[in-house]
């Protein structure tokens, strides 16, 4: 970026915010501290996590410190440290350690799990460290990183917001480091990566079923320009979206119906039997500003938080992405951004049913316009799904199904499922599937024939 353009952007955004647009930051180190206090009300669905990511030196990384059901009232307590490290040209390194105990400070960002934790580095920074076994190699992933904020914190969800199917559930979301400078080291398979890059850190806490809501999130930042952007979307019946942009120390916020989010470029993942998006398009308007954003994932890593069946588990596709867009004020002034960041997509997973409609059965040359319906012959319950551009589909239970019948959400063992592929309302193929819950997922095969 030229010096002239950079200077013009700074002047533009100073004008934006000196005019009174935006909200002042209202967060302190205590807000990023440990929050759990036992009160006997829904303690079994208490969740809290601190998330850190970063980009630097041809590598990307994500670290998560999680507590869920801290009193182990359900028998599914999670006291976990996660690490994902991506090096260009290499397979992902993924690590997880389950701890038997934890400790935190109610007044400062300080937390300890088994061999992992974080603490204040100075008046504003945070040091994070950890040691978790790598799932694929049997070695370990170790990290020791310093996060220095480049912009001040703000609340993405400042008040308790309902996000799931449980009555009275709630979450708060603090974007504590919308943009940060990150330095230190990560060791993967005894190889040390020196880190000097750009990072992000947020913090969520509250009482909700962790394996309930389907979510989308994305973030990007530029510390040199004091720019950052973060979005979280709760899908389904509880639909709500939260979006904030920060520049020159001020915040522009959008929420709810001001934000339109479209997911596309759907991809089938054979490892999980699930479909996930690789493209996210956002249009947001709050009366003074309009945001047009496109995020395109270039690396996707499936992560799974397991629960005992028949409770759904949670599947998360963590993604490194390229994000570009423009923020316009209604008088025509604008700020453009184009850089790397992170996106993510999560949903409950219980017993995926997947399959593929081939090109002899459907016109997939136009990106596919095929709908799959699945009817449980025992209950009459029906589910639908759209195919990817190359014909893949998947169907599964959600948390609402689990609440309706916690012993057999949507399907039970030996249920007969009738699957129909429709294009333009016309049936192009049909098949049946008998449910076998001893399998992690099942493939439905349509006959290799032309349209009926």
Could you characterize what this model shows?
The protein is mainly beta and 452 residues long. The protein has two helices and 28 strands. The strands form four sheets. Strands 1, 2, 3, 4, 5, 6, 7, 8, 9, 10, 11 and 12 form a twelve-stranded antiparallel sheet that branches. Strand 5 (103-104) and strand 6 form a beta hairpin. Residues 1-25 have low confidence and may be disordered.
Please write out the topology.
Elements: H1 3-18, E1 46-56, E2 59-68, E3 78-87, E4 93-98, E5 103-104, E6 111-113, E7 116-120, E8 126-133, E9 140-149, E10 154-161, E11 170-188, E12 191-207, E13 215-222, E14 227-234, E15 240-247, E16 250-255, E17 259-269, E18 274-285, E19 289-305, E20 313-329, E21 334-349, E22 353-356, E23 370-376, E24 382-386, E25 392-395, H2 399-404, E26 416-423, E27 426-434, E28 442-445
Parallel strand pairs: 22-28
Antiparallel strand pairs: 1-2, 1-12, 2-3, 3-4, 5-6, 6-7, 7-8, 8-9, 9-11, 10-11, 11-12, 13-14, 13-21, 14-15, 15-16, 17-18, 18-19, 19-20, 20-21, 22-25, 23-24, 23-26, 26-27
Short description:
This protein is mainly beta. It has helices at residues 3-18, 399-404, and strands at 46-56, 59-68, 78-87, 93-98, 103-104, 111-113, 116-120, 126-133, 140-149, 154-161, 170-188, 191-207, 215-222, 227-234, 240-247, 250-255, 259-269, 274-285, 289-305, 313-329, 334-349, 353-356, 370-376, 382-386, 392-395, 416-423, 426-434, 442-445. The longest helix is centred in the N-terminal third of the chain and has 16 residues, at 3-18.
């Amino acid at each position: 970026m030229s010096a002239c353009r950079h200077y013009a952007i700074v002047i533009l955004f100073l004008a934006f915010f000196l005019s009174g647009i935006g909200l002042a930051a209202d967060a302190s180190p205590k807000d990023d501290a440990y929050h759990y206090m036992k009160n006997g009300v829904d303690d079994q669905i208490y969740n809290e996590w601190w998330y850190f990511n970063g980009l630097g030196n041809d590598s990307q990384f994500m670290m998560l410190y999680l507590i869920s059901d801290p009193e182990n009232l359900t028998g599914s307590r999670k006291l976990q440290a996660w690490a994902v490290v991506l090096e260009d040209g290499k397979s992902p390194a993924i690590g997880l350690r389950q701890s038997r105990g934890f400790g935190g400070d109610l007044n400062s960002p300080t937390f300890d799990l088994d061999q992992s934790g974080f603490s204040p580095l100075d008046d504003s920074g945070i040091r994070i460290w950890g040691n978790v076994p790598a799932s694929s190699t049997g070695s370990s992933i170790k990290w020791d990183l310093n996060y220095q904020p480049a912009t001040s914190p703000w609340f993405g969800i400042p008040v308790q917001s309902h996000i799931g199917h449980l009555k009275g559930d709630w979450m708060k979301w603090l974007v504590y480091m919308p943009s940060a400078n990150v330095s230190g080291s990560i060791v993967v398979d005894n190889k040390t990566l020196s880190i000097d890059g750009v990072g992000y850190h947020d913090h969520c806490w509250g009482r909700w079923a962790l394996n309930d809501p389907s979510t989308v999130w994305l973030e990007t930042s530029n510390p040199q320009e004091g720019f950052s952007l973060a979005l979280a979307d709760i899908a389904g019946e509880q639909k709500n979206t939260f979006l904030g942009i920060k520049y020159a120390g001020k915040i522009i916020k959008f929420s709810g119906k001001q934000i339109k989010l479209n997911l596309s470029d759907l991809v089938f993942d054979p490892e999980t039997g699930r479909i996930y998006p690789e493209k996210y398009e956002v249009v947001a308007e709050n009366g003074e500003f309009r945001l047009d954003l496109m995020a395109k994932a270039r690396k996707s890593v499936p992560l799974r938080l397991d629960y005992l069946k028949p409770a759904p588990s949670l599947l998360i596709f963590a993604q490194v992405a390229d994000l570009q867009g423009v923020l316009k004020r209604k008088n025509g002034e604008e700020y453009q951004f184009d850089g790397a960041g992170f996106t993510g997509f999560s949903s409950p997973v219980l017993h995926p049913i997947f399959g593929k409609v081939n090109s002899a059965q459907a016109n997939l040359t136009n990106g596919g316009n095929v709908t799959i319906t699945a009817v449980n012959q025992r209950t009459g319950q029906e589910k639908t799904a759209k195919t990817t551009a190359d014909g893949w589909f998947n169907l599964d239970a959600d948390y609402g199904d689990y609440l309706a019948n916690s012993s057999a959400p949507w399907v039970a063992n030996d249920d007969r499922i009738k699957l129909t592929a429709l294009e333009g309302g016309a049936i192009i193929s049909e098949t049946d599937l008998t449910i076998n819950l001893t399998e992690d997922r099942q493939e439905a095969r349509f006959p290799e024939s032309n349209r009926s």
